[in-house]
Amino acid sequence: MTVYIDPPTWPGHGRMWSHLISDVSYAELHAFADRLGVPRRAFERDHYDLPRHRYADAVRAGAVEVGSREVVRLLHGAGLRRRKGAVQSRSS
């Protein structure tokens, strides 16, 4: 099981955010997020948005630190990338 996280460099809602992803499945990603106590509402298309103050928690729990471009490459390689506008279920 490998889950990845990029640096908290994405601004939004007065905070900086990281993206938490899996290169295996959404089920793996949801299970990891559940263990961290990250609410399902933080899931957006193919990743979880994690605020800066939770970054170290994710790394301590086993998330591998990668760059933002690597996050996109890993999602594409796994066939898990979902672009904005793609029809999906929030529970996927």
Order of helices and strands: EEEHEEHEH
Find the structural class using helix and strand composition: alpha+beta
Q: Count of helical segments?
A: 3
From the N-terminal CA to the C-terminal CA, the straight-line distance is 18 Å
Q: DSSP strand (E) fraction? A: 25-35%
Helix content: 25-40%
Number of strand segments: 6
Provide the gyration radius in Å: 12 Å
**Average pLDDT:** 89
Largest sheet: 6 strands, mixed
Which regions have little confidence, pLDDT < 50, spanning 5+ residues? none
Shape: globular
Architecture overview:
- The chain is built from three helices and six strands.
- It is α+β, with helices and mostly antiparallel strands and 92 residues long.
- Strands 1, 2, 3, 4, 5 and 6 form a six-stranded mixed beta sheet that branches.
- The model has no long low-confidence stretch (mean pLDDT 89).
Features:
92 residues; alpha+beta; six-stranded mixed beta sheet; 30% helix; globular
Topology:
Elements: E1 3-5, E2 10-12, E3 15-22, H1 26-36, E4 43-44, E5 47-51, H2 55-60, E6 64-65, H3 68-78
Parallel strand pairs: 1-6
Antiparallel strand pairs: 1-3, 2-3, 3-5, 4-5
Give a short summary of the structure.
This protein is an alpha+beta fold and 92 residues long.
